[in-house]
């Protein structure tokens, strides 16, 4: 009697394979990886500029999270002040990047400027795993991946004048008017960020949502702690150090306009 062919089980470690695991109630998704809610209920409830995205984690991303999170990962719990020199193992300049997506651009910037450390923050688990994997494959030891709320990181865990730059690329535009209060680039956020940025530090924002770009320009231009690097007070050309991502290229092909903003932290006012 002929036996019907039975398909071989899928290789969970094949490139791009997704990983699914039945966990007991309360069991963490990645025992040695990022925590689901690192700050817990220690801090006030407030309107947030981000919303966690749930999507499948590939086997490669899961492996990177398990292997590399204890070495290159940081949970934003708000319970400790970070020594950035200790975190990176050197005293090189540190740039904070808020919202890195899948991490391709971050990895390219880290590879192109190994003398600058990048502290990259996001809440997207697949992206965290992907960036760790890219950094590992490229031998880029100047990347650390932080998980959680960037506001708590800035306010509770970083010391004054500890950052040499801030990057916010393609943040959620929250296009509906009633959601504009959720946008990250607001006067209160800039006031907080200014306390952690050294004088002369570069703030670099980019967005393909033109109304948000206009708001960013207005808010940054009006803030006393920042000055536009552009003599005409407008948007900046895309600097060479910010890679053109595949997503951005697709948008440009469709006629989207991408605006960059480059502002500097002005020197502290004397008492």
TrEMBL record:
Gene Ontology cellular component list: tRNA methyltransferase complex
Residues that hold substrate according to the record: 176, 208, 245-248
Binding locations of S-adenosyl-L-methionine: 97, 122, 149, 172
Biased composition (Basic and acidic residues): 24-35
Enzyme Commission code: 2.1.1.33
Pro residues biased stretches: 1-12
A single GO molecular function term of this UniProt record: tRNA (guanine(46)-N7)-methyltransferase activity
Protein name, per record: tRNA (guanine-N(7)-)-methyltransferase
Species in which this protein is naturally found: Streptomyces monashensis
Gene transcribed to yield this protein: trmB
């Amino acid at each position: 009697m002929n036996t019907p062919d039975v398909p071989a089980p899928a290789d969970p470690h094949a490139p791009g394979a997704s990983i699914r695991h039945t966990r007991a109630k309360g069991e963490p998704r990645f025992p040695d990886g990022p925590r689901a809610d690192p700050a817990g209920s220690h801090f006030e409830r407030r309107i947030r500029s981000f919303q966690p995205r749930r999507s499948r984690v590939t086997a490669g991303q899961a492996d990177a999270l398990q292997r590399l999170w204890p070495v290159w990962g940081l949970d934003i719990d708000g319970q400790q002040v970070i020594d950035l020199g200790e975190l990176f193992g050197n005293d090189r300049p540190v740039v904070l990047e808020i919202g890195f997506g899948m991490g391709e651009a971050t990895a390219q910037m880290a590879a192109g400027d190994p003398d600058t450390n990048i502290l990259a923050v996001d809440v997207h688990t697949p992206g965290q795993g992907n960036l760790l994997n890219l950094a590992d494959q490229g031998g880029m030891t100047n990347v650390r991946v932080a998980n959680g709320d960037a506001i708590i990181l800035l306010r509770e865990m970083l010391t004054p004048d500890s950052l040499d730059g801030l990057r916010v690329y393609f943040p959620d535009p929250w296009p509906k008017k009633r959601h504009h209060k959720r946008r990250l680039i607001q006067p209160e956020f800039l006031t907080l960020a200014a306390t952690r940025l050294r004088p002369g530090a570069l703030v670099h924002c980019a967005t393909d949502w033109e109304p948000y770009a206009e708001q960013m320009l207005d808010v940054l231009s009006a803030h006393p702690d920042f000055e536009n690097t552009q003599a005409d007070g407008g948007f900046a050309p895309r600097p060479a150090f910010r890679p053109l991502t595949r997503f951005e290229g697709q948008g440009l092909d469709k006629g989207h306009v991408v605006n960059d903003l480059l502002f500097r932290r002005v020197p502290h006012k004397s008492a």
